[in-house]
């Protein structure tokens, strides 16, 4: 271990299980084709709910990654994390063994954790009695278990933790993992976010606080970031995982390198439980800190993967933050919200959006903001409406903001040795 903060960190593996694709290739194809992952809820009977649609994963088989006994003892959010992590390791052709296990860590964020198990076990408690509750209830529902079980199922024995910063959790996990490698605490980190909160209680709760869209008659057009007629976000589920490596370690093993992570900015609004500070002041500062951390100027930014929730408050605030942090250059870059296709994965969103941002750099193409019909007058940037775009992406930022005032920006750039 060293105390250097000069170690360079690169992205060598990616994994994604999302509402628009259950592999990295399918996810990218979905992003590029503007695939819509939003539809009526099938995971439970939502007929009594004010909001009856979500962005669910389709056709996920946990047994492709876990044996039946292990899968049965895991909540869906942890299954998704283990699966996406195994995808990322395979993508990177990275093998964890006795020689390197203690230098490989795991940091996976989630906003809510095992809510489905908690709901089910409370029903057991109320109808059958407390002595009938599962002995696996607690280890299945606690938020850190995605990271813990990923380590168990991959053999990673290095630093292991879990960020629980609401909708910023996945991006916090990636940023903190970046720092740990910079500081020499690990040579590689499995990091990102996961969430599986399309459950009766979750949908009811978000609906009660008026965060969701209620476009039940037209769910396919409900997630419409930056559009004048947006009315709330669409709940989604899934997991996105990045394998980060110290650069020299990656080069020594001949790894393919998607991009380099160079900056991490973190701030807090210190303002409201669920609302955002007007004008996106602290969100802008997170973007500025990430650029400063990476030694970047505003003119170097090509693309911003926006938090872009499709809520009345977030989108103009984030637009203001982008303009504050990038100045006049904000009008010369591409900005898009992939939540228009995937819905909002809460703590998992920073994971799949980090994957999208890295691929935009690696493939010089940016995903669109679908369902964009008429811009809100306060949202006056280039949001890549409705169709993906070929674009030389040298440097990109990924924003995530969470209830509690958490603001996170990650900065990635094309890798040059």
What does this structure look like?
Helix content is 32%, strand content 18%. The chain is an alpha/beta fold and 417 residues long. It has 2 domains: 9-252, Thiolase/Chalcone synthase (Peroxisomal Thiolase, Chain A, domain 1); 265-405, 3-Layer(aba) Sandwich (Peroxisomal Thiolase, Chain A, domain 1). α11 links the parallel β9 (303-305) and β10. α7 packs across α13 (349-363). The chain is globular and about 65 Å long. The mean pLDDT is 97.
Topology:
Layout: E1 9-17, H1 24-33, E2 39-40, E3 53-54, H2 68-72, H3 76-92, E4 104-109, H4 115-128, H5 137-141, H6 145-154, E5 160-161, H7 169-182, E6 188-195, H8 200-208, E7 238-246, H9 247-252, E8 259-268, H10 281-293, E9 303-305, H11 314-326, E10 334-336, H12 339-342, H13 349-363, E11 365-366, E12 389-390, E13 395-402, E14 406-413
């Amino acid at each position: 271990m060293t105390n250097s903060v000069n170690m360079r960190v690169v992205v060598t593996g990616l994994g994604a299980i999302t509402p628009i694709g259950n592999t990295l290739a399918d996810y990218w194809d979905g992003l590029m084709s503007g695939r819509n992952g939003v539809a009526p809820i099938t995971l439970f009977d939502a007929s009594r709910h004010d909001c009856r649609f979500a962005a669910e994963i389709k056709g996920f088989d946990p047994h492709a990654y876990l044996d039946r006994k292990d899968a049965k003892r895991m909540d869906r959010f942890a299954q998704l994390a283990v699966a996406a992590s195994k995808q990322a390791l395979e993508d990177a052709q990275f093998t964890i063994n006795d020689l390197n296990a203690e230098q490989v860590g795991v940091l996976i964020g989630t906003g809510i954790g095992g809510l489905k198990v908690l709901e089910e076990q409370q029903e057991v408690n109320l109808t059958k009695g407390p002595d009938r509750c599962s002995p696996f209830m607690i280890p299945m529902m606690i938020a850190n278990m995605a990271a813990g079980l990923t380590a168990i199922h991959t053999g990673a024995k290095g630093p292991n933790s879990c960020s629980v910063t609401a909708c910023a959790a996945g991006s916090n996990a990636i940023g903190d993992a970046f720092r740990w490698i910079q500081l020499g605490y690990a040579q590689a980190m499995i990091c990102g976010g996961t969430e599986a909160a399309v459950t009766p209680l979750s949908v009811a709760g978000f609906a009660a606080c008026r965060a969701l869209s209620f476009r039940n008659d037209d769910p396919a057009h409900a997630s419409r970031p930056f559009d004048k007629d947006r009315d709330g976000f669409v709940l989604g589920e899934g997991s996105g995982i990045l394998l980060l490596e110290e650069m020299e370690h990656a080069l020594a093993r001949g790894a393919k390198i998607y991009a380099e992570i160079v900056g991490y900015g973190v701030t807090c609004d210190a303002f409201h439980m669920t609302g955002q500070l007007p004008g996106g002041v602290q969100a802008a500062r997170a973007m500025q800190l990430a650029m400063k951390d990476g030694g970047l100027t505003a003119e170097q930014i090509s693309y911003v993967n926006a938090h872009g929730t499709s809520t009345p408050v977030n989108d103009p605030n984030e637009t203001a933050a982008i303009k504050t942090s990038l100045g006049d250059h904000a009008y010369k870059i591409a900005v898009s919200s992939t939540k228009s296709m995937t819905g909002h994965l809460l703590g998992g969103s920073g994971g799949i959006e980090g994957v999208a941002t890295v691929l935009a750099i690696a493939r010089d193409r940016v995903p669109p903001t679908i369902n964009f019909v008429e811009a809100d007058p306060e949202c006056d940037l280039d949001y890549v409406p409705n169709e993906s775009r070929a674009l030389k992406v040298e440097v990109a930022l990924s924003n995530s903001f969470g209830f509690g005032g958490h603001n996170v920006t990650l900065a990635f750039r094309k890798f040059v040795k």
